[in-house]
Write a structure and sequence with these properties.
Blueprint: H1 2-10, E1 21-25, H2 32-56, H3 70-83, H4 88-95, H5 99-111, E2 115-118, E3 121-124, H6 126-138, E4 142-145, E5 155-161, H7 172-180, E6 185-192, E7 195-197, H8 210-220, E8 226-233, H9 237-254, E9 261-263, E10 269-273
Pfam family, one: DUF4443
GO molecular function: aminoacyl-tRNA ligase activity; ATP binding
InterPro entries: DUF4443 (IPR029349), GAD-like_sf (IPR004115), WH-like_DNA-bd_sf (IPR036388), WH_DNA-bd_sf (IPR036390)
Length: 276
């Protein structure tokens, strides 16, 4: 069902302007037509995934404002993937939410057919597993890191966001997404040529902190054009983690590469719609 939806979506035109169509023959691109279509497919699918997380964390009817976010939904899926079955007690502890919020979260996940409840606990459905698999492609690794010049709070949590350097402006948007979660903030780094730098700069910010540089390289395994988002908070490691996740999901939701592409059905070309 999801594959059919992706194919339908690929027939839709995404563009920012109607000016200057530039056609590219897919067979001449590196990797060929299938790899390019796969990239477009993945890019569009991740936006479907983010929309699903947003739907789960939205009110379905007039009610009190929900206390959980897409970041909570993502961590719930991570916990289920790790434990296979989870209890409400575990979710209360790991998400730092009340029992009422966890009950609503589970209800919304079931409405989206993301989970199945059994006598053993809550586990992922086939749809939930596919959603989680896609998210894990873009956010494959994460770890707690110590306080430093770039992780200034008591609790700091780093997340790898693969191949998203072009989606980062100055890192302010990621910081704001973390603050909205209630955390102190977030630091965004770009990995390029073996170095970690802040957006808009080539300066290696970890030049004098080799132990942290090694920790990030070994723990996250970044490559060129990857992004590292560090959530920080003075009161809670879980909040620092959720802040980093919120900033990463914000970046995935708002990167616009796929909006400039139009797949022409039954033809070996992609049309780029650019501003003139």
């Amino acid at each position: 069902m999801l594959k059919c939806y992706i194919i339908t979506t690929l027939r839709t035109s995404y563009h920012k302007s109607k000016q200057h169509n530039h056609c590219i023959n897919l067979t001449k691109l590196k990797g060929g037509r299938d790899n390019v279509i796969s990239k477009i497919c993945d890019d569009i699918f991740v936006h479907i995934v983010i929309n699903t997380l947003n739907s789960i964390s939205s009110r379905y009817a007039p009610s009190r404002v929900l206390s959980f976010s897409p970041a909570h939904v993502f961590k719930t899926l991570q916990l289920i993937n790790r434990e296979r079955y989870v209890s409400r007690f575990l979710l209360v502890r790991e998400l730092e939410l009340g029992e009422g919020s966890i009950k609503t979260l589970i209800k919304h996940l079931k409405m989206e057919k993301m989970i199945i409840t059994t006598n053993k606990g809550t586990t992922m459905s086939e749809k939930g597993a596919k959603i989680f698999e896609q998210l894990s492609k873009y956010i494959p690794s994460e770890l707690e890191i110590p306080q430093s010049s770039i992780s200034i709070s008591k609790f700091n949590y780093a997340i790898l966001l693969i191949y998203m350097s072009n989606a980062i402006r100055q890192g302010i948007e990621q910081r704001d997404a973390a603050i909205k979660m209630g955390a102190k903030g977030a630091t965004t780094l770009i990995f390029e040529n073996g170095k970690f730098s802040i957006p808009g700069s080539k300066y290696n910010v970890l030049r004098n902190e080799k132990s942290l540089e090694l920790l990030l390289k070994d723990g996250l395994r970044p490559i060129n054009n990857d992004v590292i988002i560090i959530g920080s908070d003075d009161s809670s490691l879980i909040l620092a983690e959720l802040a980093a996740k919120a900033a990463a999901l914000y970046t995935l939701e708002n990167h616009g590469d796929h909006k400039e592409l139009k797949l022409i059905a039954n033809e070996n070309r992609v049309v780029y719609k650019n501003n003139g």
